[in-house]
Amino acid sequence: MGAAVRIQEFTAQGFRNLAGVRLWPDPGANVLLGSNGQGKTSALEAVDYVASLRSFRGATRAQLLGHESPMATLGLRVDAPTGAREYRVRLTRTAREVLLDGKRPERAVDYFGSAACVAFQPGDLDLVRGSPELRRRLLDRVLLRALDGYGEALKSYTRALKARNALLRERTPEARAVQSYDYPLARYGSALTRARGSLAAELREAVARALGALDLTGAPVELAYRPRGAPDAEAFTRMLAEALPQDLARRTSTVGPHADDLALAWGGKPARVVASQGQTRALALALRLAELHAVAARNQCLPVLLLDDVSSELDRPRTERLFAYVAALGAQLWVTTTDPSIAALVPRARLFQVRDGRVSPEHV
Which of 46, 65, 69, 200 is deepest in the core (most CB within 10 A)? Predict the structure, then answer.
């Protein structure tokens, strides 16, 4: 699985409600303990934002800035299999500056790979019950960090799709103009479809292993990639041509990876319909653990695992099994909780107290 990524230092200033944070986490396990609203989730969100350049709460850049703060700065010093790396992100309401070892990164895979994090938070229940867009985002998150060129293909496809849809929305769209975008859509869309299909097969096995580790057995869980394109550019082009009359009628593009789904079934039926609340929680967590395994297998480095308020999503026995499972993997772990008894379940953890946006080590 490769050596683990370990965050050695984390800094944050002007981010959400955090009041100037600088901490040196344990290379193994870390627990952020405090009441609700004190800044625990903001701290995990800040760590993951540096690693992914996206908010796991879906926040805009302006929402990430602290109250009346014109700027936020975030930093990670990381020990990765490729060596020590230093990440700096500066946010304003109108711009974002990203530096890797003091320079602007040239390739997305270089940036995202070495600071890899996997974050689980209560909103991840929507991975099971929510729209396909959330599951597509999970696939893209892995591939951006693990597959060179994927980010460029995704950006190029999205740009061509936006332009094609703009033509389709015109009062009298011209078929020939719309078809002028078939080449870039087929070229980049087929690349996305191939990459997602390969990853989905890896996730299928990893989800089964994670569910076994969490002791969630019974009805079989099925994970199926349902593409709306083709892995071959010529076949993709034919699909676009066949769908053109429908696209003109609907005023939108109906073929392509923007409409893919990663479908979850429980005992042969849609998991969003039949899974209980507890099963949904375990399934969502299993997807995140599968994400961790997929990144580790492809990058030969084990990501940091961030668990936000996981004790509210799992019962106590499964929480214990989860912590033991992560400890056995060897990943650096960050956990937030309001419950000191949950903190006590994390093996050999360094404890941090979070209060009024300040994070300080707990001396015991």
Answer: 46
CB 271 within 8 A of CB 264: yes
Per residue in 232-248, pLDDT (tens digit) is 999 999 999 999 999 99
Q: What residues contact 344, with CB distance under 8 A and at least 6 apart?
A: none
Query: Which whole-number Å values give the CA distances from 287 to 135, 139, 160, 222, in the listed order?
Result: 10, 10, 30, 12
Q: Rounded to two decimals, what is the model's pTM? A: 0.91
* Distances 22 to 2, 11, 78, 156, 358 between C-alpha atoms, Å: 28, 4, 14, 38, 9
DSSP 161-225: HHHHHHHHTSSS--HHHHHTTHHHHHHHHHHHHHHHHHHHHHHHHHHHHHHHHTT--SSPEEEEE
CA angle (234 as vertex; 231, 237 as ends), nearest 5: 95
Report d(CA 159, CA 197) in Å as an integer.
Answer: 22
Q: Which domains does the chain have, with CATH numbers?
A: 1-116+303-364 (3.40.50.300)
Per-residue DSSP letter, 104:
-
Distance CA 318, CA 136 (A): 27
**Within 10 Å of residue 108's Cβ, how many Cβ atoms?**
19
